[in-house]
Design a protein that fits this description.
Three copies of one chain form a homotrimer. Chain A is an alpha+beta fold and 265 residues long. The first copy, chain A, has two domains: 151 residues, S-adenosyl-l-methionine hydroxide adenosyltransferase, N-terminal (Rossmann fold), CATH 3.40.50; 100 residues, Beta Barrel (Elongation Factor Tu (Ef-tu), domain 3), CATH 2.40.30.90. In chain A, the strands form two sheets. In chain A, strands 8, 9, 10, 11, 12, 13, 14 and 15 form an eight-stranded antiparallel beta sheet that branches. A seven-stranded mixed beta sheet of chain A has the order 2-1-3-5-4-6-7, sandwiched between helices. The termini of chain A are far apart. At the A-B interface, α1 of A face β1, β2 and α2 of B.
Chain lengths: 265, 265, 265
């Protein structure tokens, strides 16, 4: 068991929350090592957290522990869970924040973390990151076996991951699932969904998003003309709409959830 | 002596300041370990820094060193200090930024850091974080004894921590001391100040803040009705005003310093 | 070879990019240690990145590896490079982002990183931070020798570092090269450029910037009068225009690139 722990939350970096969780973990396991994935998940936005962890976890060594806390239901009856998926462990609320991970991994085992022996007492109703999730990650990183934290469950929460649809022979309908730091629009369309536009010399196509049509696929951001919005295969394996030294999101005035329609031929 | 060092500053994360301090420390003690508490303390706001460190330090292991740098008086005659409070060490400017810590701990020893042997030369007038506080924390983490840095003092700066007042038998007057990432309003009222509203079945009460009255205490954020602002016992042990998946600060249009009046019965 | 790696990027902290790079490095070298310098370099702004790394790297121990990724040309023909400058190593795109470092160090050796054996496959066209720069830094931190990554080159990109000009016997013309977190305006004028104003009792001078004249040099921010903008020797060794508990940038309504004219006598 590695002592490497990643953190993904909507806690922001202005408050002491993230640091306090690390303090709790280091009190349990002084050799824990941390990597922050993001603390700027949109507040309360389980989908955004689910996508963030899914895009990153596979780049970490086997046996990494991933703390994923986007938890609008803190203090309610929603369960804390410990999931083993592929070669990684995840500690999170059971609200769907691991849905993309479940989708990607064949082998998934989820436990309801119920043994309060491992919690920080008294457990508050408003900060389970500090009182439940951090200490569980700490003990797990110290070698406590998964089965010690609670029983396996099969009714864990998993939301339907939005998939692009081929709505006609020539039309694929997807959506923007994320806008990144640079304003690139990341869609849920992968090369497997629209192989026609990802070949070496793609046939003609038009991608409709917002009020605009995009008809050019290029290989690198810097190949874009000034202010042109183009299509590109992004580093996450999805179709992106981008701009050279500019923000496609601003230029197109669209954001997450926007419909993206690929018309072939 | 642990090599664990936390950092709390108003330096932000856009500039190189925080990283440079860590470089200086690692040059002195390569096995130093860092946890960032916050670098988004409101600029020049000693009160905000004082509260941030106070809310977090007790969750760290004994012998942790806490660097706390909110320092509008850098380069003036304000003293650098090294404080031992409870089982923790603090390196900070002597401007009151440790006031809440002094308030919470029974055993406090404060030294004027004056032995410039431990400073990074030449000492600038504008970045004592790099030239004084970081190297002192570095040497301290390497095992240099506290008395080597300077003499104890008793006239260190401590501002009066704002306490709620029982202005009548039925009225407690407090204030908002912090707005967190989610827009929750954290007050300075603890269960000891207003036990009547923190019992299992509290008697009727009304909390006046801004233009609104809040009359309901609930157990978890998610128990709130849409757009309702409610009272809740927060994870710091203070009365909070919050909202379910929303910002009480925005809804009520109030911020830090706002008066909070609890009327009982 | 140290396992200490600093990171300077324009990736921001909202996305998973920085964390993912650290995951890749830890997969190669589990004992790598990270210090973030800044991930808030202005997007695509090579000059801003070049300045950020230059202001910080000398405060790190010898043999530190600095990852510097501001890379609008990702996926194009711009080369990845590995530079040894002074006692530090740098992994970066060859776009000038190390220009200030080259300027400061006498001994510089730059290699074109071309041996894709050390890359993460498949190499994307849009995220060389993850696929090229991070793994190269990882292998380098594990002890792979610099010459293994590629041949030395001499035609690496270096932009002209803007220097102040003495445009007449009594006039020095410089510029604002950075605005820091507090709104201080950092110029490119050092004491060597304008010794007359940096003596213990400087002769009369007037600094013209924006619509204003500044005629006072002081020793510490806190010596400034309320709302006064003053001159001060900053911690980076450059003339700064600052304000006591306020933002000179806001007060003067100027930013990076603004002309600064020092008139002596």
């Amino acid at each position: 068991m590695s002592a490497l722990i990643t953190l993904t939350t909507d806690f922001g970096l202005a408050d002491h929350f993230v640091g306090t969780m690390k303090g709790v973990i280091l009190g349990i396991n002084p050799s824990a090592q941390f990597v922050d994935l993001s603390h700027h998940v949109n507040p309360f936005d389980v989908f955004d957290g689910a996508l963030t962890i899914a895009l990153a976890y596979r780049y970490f060594p086997s046996h990494t522990i991933h703390l994923v806390i986007v938890d609008p239901g803190v203090g309610s009856s929603r369960r804390p869970i410990l999931a083993r998926a592929g070669e990684h462990s995840f500690v999170a609320p059971d609200n769907g924040v691991l849905s993309f991970v479940y989708e990607r991994e064949e082998s998934v085992e989820v436990r309801h973390v119920a043994v309060d022996h491992y919690f920080l007492k008294p457990v508050s109703n408003t900060f389970h990151g500090r009182d439940i999730f951090a200490p569980v990650a700490g003990w797990l990183s110290k070698g406590v076996e998964a089965e010690k934290f609670g029983e396996t469950i099969t009714d864990y929460v998993k939301f339907a991951v939005p998939k692009p649809q081929r709505i006609s022979a020539q039309t694929i309908q997807g959506m923007v699932i994320k806008v990144d730091q640079f304003g690139n629009l990341i869609t849920n369309i992968s090369p497997a969904d629209a192989p026609e536009i990802f070949t070496a010399s793609p046939s003609q196509f038009a991608i409709a998003v917002g009020q605009q049509q995009i008809a050019r696929m290029i290989d690198s951001y810097s190949a874009g003309e000034p202010s042109e919005v183009f299509a590109i295969l992004g580093s996450s394996g999805f179709l992106e709409l981008g701009q050279n030294r500019g923000s496609a999101a601003k230029t197109l005035q669209v954001g997450r959830g926007a419909e993206v329609k690929v018309a072939l031929g």
